[in-house]
Amino acid sequence: MILSVNNLNAGYGRVHVLKDISIEVNEGEIVCLVGANGAGKSTLLKAISGIIPIMQGRVTFRNLDITNSRPNHIVKEGISHVPEGRQIFGSLTVRQNLLLGTYIRKMKKEEISRLFNFIYSLFPILEKRLYQKAGTMSGGEQQMLAIARGLMSQPKLLLLDEPSLGLAPLVVETILNVIQHLKSTGISILLVEQNVNAALEIADRAYIIETGRIITTGNSKELRENDEIKRCYLGM
Ligand SMILES: Nc1ncnc2c1ncn2[C@@H]1O[C@H](COP(=O)(O)OP(=O)(O)O)[C@@H](O)[C@H]1O
Ligand SMILES: [Mg+2]
Questions:
Q1: Cα–Cα distance measured from residue 130 to residue 21, given in angstroms and rounded to the nearest whole number
Q2: Which among 104, 150, 204, 206 would be 20 to 30 A from 197, CA to CA?
Q3: Domain limits of the chain?
Q4: What number does CATH give the domain 3-86+149-233?
């Protein structure tokens, strides 16, 4: 097991959002987090990556207790969070945005250039856009950049928050293919997706979250055949 969240409670100030959340991600798995708007998906990713405090419970990453560790420490340990809404720096170039992803620890030139080549192999368009200001790119390209930047810290676990939101079907497909490819390179992935159908196709397992609680879990195939899931999340 690479990530284990046990009875986690978290929220914002006095607002208690997550209630006794327990989830696991195994090494090399894609695990999907499914739930309606406001269910607490982004909040859970934020609690794991140390952006918001954990009120109660524990987060363990590769046998290390990272509960309430500082975000930069958590990145160093190997968790990278690609937030909702991308949050790239529009006035910086693609290259500068990518370099920001490496500042968490000292890297040799060769290591950085190997990482850039890895990024180009995933998203060839980013090599063409290297010296372009990120804000001038299309939404799809910006999302690719956000994921690429997350990879620059060489994570073992990637937290992806709605990577396909608002993108054209062809771009969505590109991104989902890349996520699958990342899995084949040994990166574990916790994925939040609105596009539940597509997410369940690439995920090994999923958790359904409703108003801050996990209500169902199972492997993707089981969940795709579950009548309630079909009705609530797959629009059948
Ligand atoms: N910064 C914040 N301050 C206070 N409440 C918040 C904040 N961000 C989110 N919330 C609340 O927490 C709940 C869960 O939100 P969120 O995790 O963003 O849901 P999801 O990602 O599943 O759509 C919602 O009720 C939302 O209003
Ligand atoms: Mg969200």
A1: 40
A2: 150
A3: 3-86+149-233
A4: 3.40.50.300
